Each structure stands twice: as structure tokens, then as C-alpha cells.
Amino acid sequence: MATRALLNALSKRPLHFSTTLISRSASTLVLAEHENGSIKAQTVSAVVAAKSLSEDNSVSLLLAGSGQSLKDAAKHAASCHPSVSQVLVADSDKFKYPIAEPWAKLVQMIQQSGEYSHIVSASSSFGKNVLPRAAALLDVSPITDVIEISSSSQFVRPIYAGNALCTVRYTGANPCMLTIRSTSFPIPPSSADSKCNEAPISEVDLSTLDEDYLGKSRYVGHTSQDAERPDLGSARVVVTGGRGLKSAENFKMVEKLAEKLGAAVGATRAAVDAGFVPNDLQVGQTGKIVAPELYLAFGVSGAIQHIAGMRDSKVIVAVNRDADAPIFQVADYGLVGDLFEVIPELIEKIPEKK
């Protein structure tokens, strides 16, 4: 009777074996972004995040593409971080361009054969495009924009444009799918460009890849920023302009100042919507999340959506004519002044970058 009562009690109460299983046998697939034969920094941050899921976590990097660039990226991936245990390479013309539909099908196929406990991607335009589609195919709920990993099933993410933090516990079936903010998982200096313990590289068998996605989307074109300018997402210094610059012609002052400082150029949504600069320079909740060592804001009022994308910057300097502008509430240094006088003076007095 006691045994039957115990079995009845167990059948009526929720079981939490899955969480324990994840922590004991964690294995993570990281979706890798690469360009010009190199792994992007935000992918290495995703590896750092994946390793924090569990001490004995096995981390695999998944690359897709074609040609020599993919081969070079695979070699870089094998030594980009000591936590990488293997590199999976999907070499096919179907992945020549990072279109979401074939990538999502690839992730579904890899998961069905590998049965990973976690799938992680950086919270970049690539990750935001691919991971939700893959999650839908796998019938799981993804957790986005993770800034802290408490355990293999508990995560912290910002809500209300970063004004509050939400702790989320994942209780669904494997895999637990995450996008992480790369700025919250910095790359240790000792891990960058490590040449020791290169991980093995394996080709992915694509013979069983479902191709019913063909025709649903097509590659149109690709634009990239000036190769001489630092990447906005990983730059040490960012110079941002807002609506206060009034025109695309005036925005060139920001670009010239950034050139002198060796900095990346950013913009607010208002500046992008006004056509001053292309939208790949937008910083904010609906743009890129940045956390440079120095963030210079000119003519930026400080809308909550913009602040959500740069509030983690180490030092924030703001210049605005409006002394009551919200940007001054988060700035470490603020100057109430005319940016059309301040920027030319800075350009004049700052020495040329060597």
C-alpha cells in the first residue's frame, strides 16, 4: 500500500529530471558567424556563454558556407577558443549567403542527429534571423537577449528596454535555445586567437537536408561598411550622431571625428529614419547593442530605446544643447553646448591617429 501511494504521489507531481540531465550531460551547438575567412567576435562571446552553462559542457561550432573563405573560417574556429571541442562544417552553395531558411533547416537536421542540450547564437541580426525559425521547426521556445547565465536552465534577460531584468527558467524539452548579448560575455585576453589545442573539423553530411525551403527567399545584395573603419559591435570607441545633426552633410563631421579617433560610427534611430546614414549604423533596442570603452554622443536626446543599446558603455560622453536631455542622466561626462562648435574644435585639437 505504501509503495502504491508513493507511485500515485509521484504521478501527480511535476518531475524535474530534465534540468538535472542538462546539467550532467550538457552539450551545446553554437551557430557561428564568419566573414572573410575569420570567425566574428560575437561568435567567440557565444562560446564563452556556452561554456558557462556547465563545467563539463561540450561545445561544437557550426559553420556553413562555401569556398575557400569557409575553409579559412573553419581553421580559425578550431583555435578561436580552448572550449571548442569540435567544428562542424556545412560546405554547400546553398549556404553561400547567410539566408535564414536554409540555415534553420540545417540546425534542425543537426539537432535531430546530434541531440544537443543547448543551441546558442549571438543576439545579432544573424542570430535573431535564424534561431527563432529553427526553434519553430524544433517546436521549442527560445530565450532571447540573455545577459547572464545562472545555471544550465536559468537565465537573466533585460525587459522594458533594459529598465528591468527578468529571470527566466527553462522547463521545456531539449534543446534549450538562446541568443546572448555578446557585450555581456567578454572574451578573455588569454582566449583570443589561441593556437593551442585545435579542435577537430568535421564535414556535415547534407544528403538528408530537406530542401522544401527553396524559393521562399532569395539573396538580393549585400552592403558592408568601410573596411578601414572598426566594426560597430566590437569597437573600443564609438562616435554617435543623432537628429541634432540635422542633415546627412552635417553627419560627415561625426565620421571625420571618428576617423581621427580610430572609432566606429553609430547613429540613433531618428538619424537613420531621416536618411542621414544607413540603418546598419543604428544603435539601440532595435539596432546594435554596443558596450565600448568610450561612447561619444552628439545631438542625441537619449530616447529609452537608444539608451538600451549603449548603457553598458564604460565611459559615456554627451554633447547636447538641451540641458534637460535624458542622455545626461546616463552620461559620465556631459557638455551643454552647440555640437556644430564642439565637433570642429575637437577635430582641430585631436591629433591624427597613427
From TrEMBL:
The keyword Transport is annotated on this UniProt entry: yes
Q: What cofactors does this protein use?
A: FAD
- A Pfam family of the record is ETF
Q: Which residues bind FAD?
A: 243, 268-269, 282-286, 299-306, 320
Question: Which GO CC annotations does the UniProt entry carry?
Answer: mitochondrial matrix
Locate the Electron transfer flavoprotein alpha/beta-subunit N-terminal domain: which residues? 28-213
Q: How does it assemble?
A: Heterodimer of an alpha and a beta subunit.
Q: Please describe what this protein does.
A: The electron transfer flavoprotein serves as a specific electron acceptor for several dehydrogenases, including five acyl-CoA dehydrogenases, glutaryl-CoA and sarcosine dehydrogenase. It transfers the electrons to the main mitochondrial respiratory chain via ETF-ubiquinone oxidoreductase (ETF dehydrogenase).
Under what name is this protein listed? Answer: Electron transfer flavoprotein subunit alpha
Origin: domain of life? Eukaryota
Record keywords: Electron transport, FAD, Flavoprotein, Mitochondrion, Transit peptide, Transport
Annotated localization: Mitochondrion matrix
Q: Which family does it belong to?
A: Belongs to the ETF alpha-subunit/FixB family.
One of the GO biological process terms: fatty acid beta-oxidation using acyl-CoA dehydrogenase
Which Gene Ontology molecular-function terms are recorded? electron transfer activity; flavin adenine dinucleotide binding
Keyword Transit peptide tagged = yes
Q: How is the cofactor bound?
A: Binds 1 FAD per dimer.
